[in-house]
Amino acid sequence: MKHLFKKGSDLTNTTLLLLHGTGGSEEDLLPLAEHVDPEANVLSVRGNINENGMSRYFKRLRPGVFDEEDLKFRTRELKDFLDDAADEHGFDRSKVVAVGYSNGANIAGSLLLHYSDALAGAILHHPMVPLRGLSLPDLKDRPVFIGAGKNDPICPAEESEELEQLLSEAGADVTLHWENHGHQLTGTEIDAAADWYRNNKNRLD
Ligand code: MLT
Question: Domain 3-204 has what CATH class?
Answer without folding.
Answer: alpha beta
